[in-house]
Backbone:
């Protein structure tokens, strides 16, 4: 059987191999990974100050309003079950690009939500698609070093 996704290099000095990148390029990628992880981590709790406002706007209890935190973290915890193996099969960028775009779109959905249900669903999916920061970043760093 032929492995359709096998990545090979043109010898030990192939410039496309992440282990052969310059120190500056590796450093830049690590900085981007750190910024990515920071943004995703902040995304889990950035809505906390708005809990009181959510209660009033959507006329829900404190327990329901705080679910916006739980749904995001639940998504953040379950996403790696999908994206870690996917990044090994399809490549890191094939996972990073669409999940980051979907993370941004679902956060936009959070901002435009007209009811608590749509907000919770958007927070869940934002959490799922944000999980690549924790699921794939370590693999990316391993590929370079």
Residues:
């Amino acid at each position: 059987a032929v492995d359709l996704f096998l990545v090979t290099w043109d010898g030990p000095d192939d410039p496309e191999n992440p282990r052969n990148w310059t120190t500056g390029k590796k450093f830049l990628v690590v900085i981007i990974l750190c910024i990515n992880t920071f943004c995703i981590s902040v995304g889990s709790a950035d809505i906390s100050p708005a809990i009181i406002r959510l209660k009033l706007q959507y006329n829900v209890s404190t327990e329901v309003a705080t679910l916006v935190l739980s749904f995001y973290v639940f998504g953040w915890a379950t996403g790696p079950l999908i994206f870690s193996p996917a990044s090994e099969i399809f490549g890191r960028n094939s996972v990073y690009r669409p999940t980051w775009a979907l993370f941004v779109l679902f956060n936009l959905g959070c901002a435009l939500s007209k009811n608590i249900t749509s907000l919770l669903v958007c927070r869940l999916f934002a959490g799922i698609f944000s999980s690549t920061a924790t699921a794939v970043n370590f693999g990316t760093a391993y590929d370079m070093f």
Summary: The chain is about 75% helix and 0% strand.
